[in-house]
Amino acid sequence: MAAVSLDVPQIMNYIGGIWQAVKESRGVINPATGETIVQVPLSGTDSVEEAVKAAKKAQQDWRLVPAPQRAEVLYRVGFLMKERKERLSQLLTMENGKVIEEARGEVQEGIDMAYYMAGEGRRLFGQTTPAELKDKFAMSNRVPVGVVGLITPWNFPIAIATWKSFPAILAGNAVVWKPATETPIMAYELAKIFEEAGLPSGVLNVVFGSGSAVGEAMVQHKEIRVISFTGSNDTGRSIAEKCGKQLKKVSLEMGGKNAVIVMDDADLQLAVEGILWSAFGTSGQRCTACSRVIVHEKVKQDLEERLLAAMDKLTIGNGLDESVKVGPIINQTGIDKIKEYIEIGKDEGAILLTGGQQVIDDDHKDGFYFAPTLFTDVTANMRIAQEEIFGPVVSIIPVKSFDEAVEMNNGVEYGLSSSIFTNDVNQVFRAQRDLDTGIVYVNAGTTGAEIHLPFGGTKGTGNGHRDSGVQALDVFTEWKAIYVDYSGKLQRAQIDVES
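^ thats the sequence. predicted structure below, dont judge the formating
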């Protein structure tokens, strides 16, 4: 595959329609090769202040543009993304590491989101309702919040950005966006696409930098009225606390400890395929990754043998190689965290069947690679069964019944995604009712969300809001109730209602 290249050696902030350099920067590392591929700005609070000022000014005009016209910009964004899909996909793999087929899928998700959310420009439905009194009309509609702040992670650098920015912009808001410093290239490319698509200057502003500097300044800025964050549970809790003190709306999408349930009547080969994809896609670096397999004891040994055989065939390497199925971990810090959990699992008494080590042979010595790992005989109270590892590590947990499997699935602090493999329709319907996660899959893995359905979870995964789907508009709009009295006299609502 012919490698693509960036058109700049130094990425810049995009504020008020102008590309702006910042004095301090750091290198962005290709996790497959260890090479520095571009420099990313490390901005300060002054850049955030400038971006908010530009956003506030632009939003005053943008909110008055009819929503169908705002949607036309998203249609053009989707078209440009589709036209450049392969280039975007290769750049994504270079900065993030995920294998190229996954990168193509992620870019396609952004394209789908552009077209889907553009369609909402001719909906943005409110309600009309009968009024209590004669000669009176009652209705509600959505209105933009104003300036919104987006903080996005490195593991899905363009998909999650589109889940947040597209509904925010379509609804008439202006955006200040802080992408992850590990993966700034997708943000740079998306900002260029917005610019080419004709988005007015200042409606989208991109400020690169650390969470402690840029992210904190956004959270504390009084003119930013919404923070939409995807990232770690600890950071999300801190953001929620700070936003709560300001009565600022906050949307959180955080971690997961997702399980695939395999019942004794399941198609085991299909289950293996689902587990393999869910656990080792993106090298396990997904909030929806399968990190637990809850299996009926009658088929546990058979499933383990099939899994081990399938894992042995997985190819590890640079994601730009079409034959590779498992790419690198994002950096050495990620590797070190996974190593810690491997030792924790061993100390807790789990049996390591395969993997468990960093891959540092001649073919992989320059990147950050970790072998797909399988533990068995894991119990519910073990840390490797409770805590998010964010790597290619799976724990097999045996159970005796469907009810025990559901209890095991629900017995963690997270509630993002769950899956069940069974051919029993009664168990299917009980599972979709009783599994306490925001997403449930039947006879499929724990990943594969579609953009027209709400994405998010329960408990420690989030705070009730959703990315994607029409529900994403709830984050970036306020409801306004409107009453039109054409009676020609003062009517005092319930006081004047005849009983």
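Residues 258-442 form a domain with the Aldehyde Dehydrogenase; Chain A, domain 2 fold (CATH 3.40.309.10).
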